Amino acid sequence: MSNSSFYLPENLAPDDASPGWMNKADNAWQLTAATLVGMQSVPGLVILYGGAVKKKWAVNSAFMALYAFACVLVCWVLWGYRMSFGTERYIAFWGAPNVSLGENYLLQKAFLGKFPNATMVYFQFVFAAITLILIAGAVLGRMNFYAWMMFVPLWLTFSYTIGAFSIWCPDGWLSKLGLLDYSGGYVIHLSSGVAGYTAAFWVGPRLTRDRERFPPNNILLMLAGAGLLWMGWTGFNGGDPYVISTDASLAVLNTHVCTATSLITWLLLDRIFFGKTSVIGAVQGMITGLVCITPAAGIVQGWAAIIMGLCSGSIPWFTMMVVHKRSAMLQKVDDTMAVLHTHAVAGSLGGLLTGVFAEPKLNYLFYGYYAQYVGLFYGFDMGKVATGFRQIGIQLLGILFVVALNITTTSLICLFIRILVPLRMSEEDMEIGDEAAHGEEAYAIWGEGDGSENSRYDVELPVSTKNRAA
């Protein structure tokens, strides 16, 4: 018997830069998925918000999203990530703040997946950022930008980190109970919907004429932003197994199937009850589909994704088009982009339907435990009815926790900010919009550029160009 040695191909052999525990393919996909999610915000929601609002608010709305993206990243690496996913903690539902900047930490293996902490910090950052940007959708068209600058780091610190730790961190209490939230139906969408609606209550409404008539200034731009949001969801749900797997592929397909079904359902309801199919309605139906499938993407079968799409295209439509219009209480709060319906209602719906349709084998592929996570539908089939009802109970408990957390923390944050600066722009500034807030306008027709004379960044034209303009 001869001695023989086995050598890995040079591109697979571990070295100092590629340690043995790291999977190069998984790391590459995770970075790609994170970038897809980041592009949902910048430029996705920047473009969507900028196009979906009245012309005088285009710059302010887009800028609120851009600022939040940058601010969250700085806060995330300085303290937010370790508060959400750190192994050290002060209390049961909150990690201890700490920096995520040193190479000794960033190059270590992440708490899940076969890639370094640096990749996980980046991946989780883009989820945190989009949550704040979704909240902005509820207060567009009147929130004082300086109040928004304070709101972003405070809400990230005192609300998002608690929800993320409780639900996603392996040491979180809801995670240990067995709450199913595949990719953020609770942590991101239910949280942003409730927080946005609560913030809108404290900030107050837009001007009366803005509430009565608030047409998109550029529907094509809005659709471009919506397209980036939809396609970016491939990374949103496809990246959460933290591995290139069959489960990741299923999650991606389920995401798009549910979304398309939801969009079509919404359009059909618009056509039946209002006589016309609305582009804005199509975007709303798209968003509710994306939100609804998010907590379930990789743990339900394709037929369940269709059912969830039918529900997400009809139930939020009903709450928005019927319940909201008949409820004096709901109409008191000016929720600009209807995040209560598109994110809170759709996120809760997705969470509950996840508890119904979660398939044990798929749960095993994702969580690594068989017969521990059983949807109610399969509980009847497997003779584990009590386990199925327990899962529904946990899903409901998660909804109650997220709602209570965000109403409380968002209210306290808004009340605190109100002591320092006004939450709402003045009536005079709201009449003007972007020019009053930033000294800039979205669309300056040649000869009307004087509207930006208050900007410090006006570009001086060359002499020859000035002569031609004259």
Taking all Cα atoms into account, the compactness measure Rg is 23 Å
Number of strands: 2
The overall number of domains is 1
**Percent helix among the residues?**
55-70%
Q: What is the second-level CATH architecture? A: Orthogonal Bundle
Keywords: Ammonia transport, Membrane, Transmembrane, Transmembrane helix, Transport
Main location: membrane
GO biological process, one term: ammonium transmembrane transport
Subcellular location: Cell membrane
Q: Can you give me a brief rundown of this structure?
A:
This protein is mostly helical. The protein contains 20 helices and two strands. It has helices at 24-52, 58-85, 103-106, 117-136, 145-167, 173-177, 185-203, 208-212, 219-238, 246-274, 279-293, 302-326, 328-331, 339-357, 360-367, 376-382, 385-420, 427-432, 434-438, 463-469, and strands at 89-91, 94-95.
Task: Describe the fold and architecture.
There is one protein chain. The protein is an all-alpha fold and 470 residues long. It has a single domain, classed as Ammonium transporter fold. Helix content is 67%, strand content 1%. The chain is built from 20 helices and two strands. It has helices at 24-52, 58-85, 103-106, 117-136, 145-167, 173-177, 185-203, 208-212, 219-238, 246-274, 279-293, 302-326, 328-331, 339-357, 360-367, 376-382, 385-420, 427-432, 434-438, 463-469, and strands spanning 89-91, 94-95. A two-stranded antiparallel sheet has the order 1-2. Strand 1 (89-91) and strand 2 (94-95) form a beta hairpin. Helix 1 (24-52) runs parallel beside helix 4, helix 2 crosses helix 4 (117-136) and helix 5 packs antiparallel against helix 7 (185-203).
